[in-house]
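<goal> How does this chain fold?
<body> The protein record starts here
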Amino acid sequence: MAEKTTIVNLTEEEFVHPGNRACSGCGLSIVYRMGLKALGKNTILVVPPSCLTVLQGLYPVASTRLPCVNVTFASTGAAASGVRGAMKALNKNDVNVVAWAGDGGTGDIGIQALSGACERGEEIIYICYDNEAYMNTGVQRSGTTPQGVLTTTTPIHGKLQTKKDVPAIIAAHGIDYVATASAAYPVDFYDKVKKATTITGPKYIHVLTPCPPGWGFETRYTIKVGKLAVETGLFDLYEIDKGEFRLTGASKKLLGKERKPVSEYFKTQGRFKSLNGDIVDTVQRQVDAKWQAYALESA
């Protein structure tokens, strides 16, 4: 059995140079550092316009030590497929080809290219960091923005629609590995990325990534806010491995235990300040029903 990853035995090798252009408290900076540790040096990144483009910077002052192909917003899945094809032609099949995009570039603008890559069975890893809005261009609502959230394009009553479940959409393609993770649980994310490198075909990992300026909380609370999303049961950590669903990490430990009310999560962020009690109650009922189903499935 493989040794369980802890902060003690985590590799010390770094693939991100000290200093970058990320905002203070950026959840993506945590996810990026941990993800590259798991992927290792034999990796090529494919990145569309996003906060990650800003974080990395551009050659010759880029913060990443790995080669990166910057592509158009809608083409990430297709471009990653092309890079994989190039590696195959060069007989470099041991290279990790990793598409890394935000929620807008994944679940909205880029979903057609991602869907096509999954349907074709491309040998790529796709990581979506989900900060639940188009943060890089001024905090506009995206498909994964939760209901009621205030953004610059939903400024009065918040977004009317519920959050798009992108992992479920990708899982419906029947690929061998789909997982969720959180910047607040970096070792869990590390292990899932590491596992993805050992599986053939397309792999998809969806990471909840708190954003202090976009979500409206103090920069020192990034981990606290991220953990609350999991502790309230709003965001679940899980794997779908060859069709088998299982909760993992902190979410697995919640089974049979009392969860924190979703209102605790909502009140930590300015983006939820327009939520009325009816929406909060509705969300709480939905979360309770979801976890009741989990409990029945695990019994």
